[in-house]
User: Fold these one by one.
Assistant:
Number 1:
Amino acid sequence: MAATATLPVTRRVDAGLPAHLATHKSGGRDRWSAPLADLPDDPTAAVREALNEVLDPEIPISLMELGLVYAVAWENGVARVELTYTATACPCMEFIREDVTDRLEREPWIDRVEMVDVWSPPWTTDRITAEGRAKLRHLGVSA
Amino acid sequence: MSDTTLSVEAMDDATRSGLKRLILTLADSKRLMGLRYSDWLVGAPSIEAGIAVSSMAQDEWGHARLLYAMLKDLNVDPQEVEHTRPAEEYASVDVLDAPFADWAAVVAGMVLVDGAITVALDAFCRGIFDPACSRIPKMLSEEEFHRSLGVAWYKRLAGSGSEEAKDLLRRATEATLPVLLRWLSTPDEVGSKLAAMGLTDSGETQVTAFQDGIRALVATAGVDVDAVEVATDPWDERRGRGPGHPEEEAVERARGDRNRMLFVE
């Protein structure tokens, strides 16, 4: 009988994308951190950190890195996020809203998420952060 | 953008009504513009041109959505406006009542029809209605690409050496301009009032801006924009356009009638 070869196990979920950047889950759900157990000292900063984990549905960099989040606030359990989109007819608007809401509502100190669409100033690629640009370059995308 | 803004609460009934008409005129025009572009996703002269009009159709529908949403500020339900009005109620600019006949008409549409709507949007953006001031700049930035593509194609057809191409372009331009010049001039009390209130520019200012923007370009097709006679057919003051309306089939598509029962939120 011939010896049985052990085949290498390949993770198929992220096949084809760089492992350290890739995700196929909506909004990067497979990389979201566990929720904080208690109310953080600076809830608004914590909301920003959480949003930095929410990825754009089309490019695996975060909404914060893309410069889509214009303002964040937290008061009495309500997180308010002012968000813009890359285009007026962005087909991913609903995905993005759902991902933002789902990520923030994981936190026990956030009871409700209030999303506000804003269009001023208009988004341009100038709003992408340096870190976002570096990640895009790594993916072969110029911005 | 103006330094001061006018709240809806501070407007009299006539101003509110005029503002609603202006928003509907722009939103319906955007919606029809997108529909007319979408007819050319297949059948444009090249795959690249078809993809370009696909993107432009997407932009136009995004603009229409943002414009319809402004009606909420006037206590008008945008959903009802978008999905229940018959074709006879549409306030879109007259030249979009029928599909573009050929690619030369599409190109003229990019530069002239889309261009005239952009002039009207720009004037509204610089007025004192805050939602317009904040939402329209993004639309204008997206429109720059439409103009860029339209101008490139216009020059290509006009300078191709093909008399047939140039003739089609000239005819499409000559058929479109009289209607657009009248539409931008907004020759009624509503137009005068909106301009006097600072909500938009006067019709005369808009017409001049439009003419200045296209004069040299349309000359390449043999058209003198300053010699064009403005349309003189009756003016429907209620809708801010001429008589007539888009064909019912187009409006059914725009409203999404066929699959409306599948709309789930």
Number 2:
Amino acid sequence: MKIYILRRLIQSFFILIGVTFITFLLLYILPADPARQIAGRSATPEAVANIRAQLGLDQPLFVQYWHYLINLFQGDFGRSYLQKTDVAELIQSRLTPTLILMFSAIFIELLFGLAAGIYSATKRGKTGDKSIMVLSFIGVSSPQFIAAILVLYIFAVKLHWFPIGGYGTFAHLVLPALTLGILGSGWYSRVMRSSMIDILRQDYIRTARAKGARENRVIFVHAFRNAVLPIVAMIGIDIGIFMSGIVVVESVFGWPGIGQLAWQAIQRVDIPIIMGVTLVSAIAIVIGNLVADLLAPFVDPRIKNS
Amino acid sequence: MSTQPLLTLKDISKKFQIKGSKNSIRAVDGVSLSINPGETLGIVGESGSGKSTLGRLALRLIEPTTGEIEFDGKKISALGSTELRHARREMQMIFQDPFASLDPRMNVESIIREPLDIHNIGTKSERSELVRKTITQVGMTEDALTRFPHEFSGGQRQRISIARAIITRPKLIVADEPVSALDASIQSQILNLLLELRRELNLTYVFISHDLSVIEHIADKVAVMYLGKIVEFASVEEIFSNPQHPYTKALISAVPQINPEHRTDRVVLTGDIPSPSSQPSGCHFHPRCPIAQQQCTDVEPVLRNINSVTHQVSCHLATGGDLR
């Protein structure tokens, strides 16, 4: 087990290095010029060149990347071009709101997704099942920015139930968490439904009924515990999808997390921040998957052997 | 025949509706049976003959379309869902595939103990005492209890299934092909265990199998099924010494004989069992029957007594003697 974790951590290390390189490359290819952004529109070409030289942006790609890596290994994420602050500090101050939003959204995803999936599976082919599947399909296919704006318009602007945006109280959390959670629950309900349908066909479910178990016991003790396995793996993957969605949703709701930070940095080509946020997101995805894999044997005793 | 039958099926039928079609499959078609306490009834037939469906109907694990089930004086077919769950204590089932019939998330102790928990039998310590006693009764050791089903072989898993089935001290056990997923050497061990338990616990079995040599070993009476109907019903001795239905004869001739002197001419059936959704006219067996005549395609035979009241056959041409 220890060797397995160590091997996974070494793998993860190389994945993260790869992520930094690809992001760096993409930002290098990008036609936008960070020096021009910093200097402002009216700056002379000399001033722009000066800033470029100062930031080392006139160096070849690999030299720039090498410098970035060296600094990174020393724990230095670089400094924001525009805000002149340490990227590590910036991300740190933004991490808590993002984590709060993430866990709330995942909680809602699981709550709605699993409940809808179980219900659908037990009412397979009936009206309830069909309506839930239509709803979940809408959830899966809705673009987050449209859903977020719609939710904001209806519940904050029109109904005044919740604040329009910001951070601080529970009321601020509700809309962004619901937007992410309900859209995300579409996937969970579909996966849970097919997993439950598959499990409900198994012989041991018939065995449980033959034992005289109540339907609730059959569904929640025997079927649910077996059907939840793909969900555990899915949460790991979901964190990745989540990290991309959070950029949009945080920006729409003015939630001061790393998604909003990333959005602002992308607009201003603030390369150190973009690099930092990408790296932190990649770390979250890697950890999420590792934890999901480590949890799997606890969910399914059959996995322990292999 | 003064003893009251433990289980009586009266004119049981089960239709499965085919999705998107007006046709339905008659998996079990007007079957009547009764089993006395302590007896073992063997049900044989090819796959698709409806024998597993009949076994499940007997315990009302699936709902019959028509017909009545009576068990131990109670009308099982009329019970509400709560009463039915309580009645399950007395009638248990062992399934064919020991790899699929045990919940992989539960350890062996929870699997065996669950019926006691469900039916609220005994105190906590009595339950675990009974679990330990039962696991040794099926020939396993107590250290198996903390392990999970996937750690066991097919034979051991079937022993766990049997332990689970007998722990509530049921009167009736329906065993649906309990040994057909196992190796031949393990098959006899499990069969002997079932025989031993029948004696010890005074059990009544409905034993479903496609394997006549298994049936010969364990059953007292045999029902031969073809396309959802019983085509022959007799004591195990009668069935093997004086089979009347051509289908039974074909099945018996297909049983491998070790002694070449005992080998008889094999009655080879051509074709497959027809689809139950489009049943042949007249006798359902006539398209494959080696001795079919005109009346067989026109008139459907009914189950009738032949030789004795305990030997029933549904064939126009059966005479009681050997008509081969």
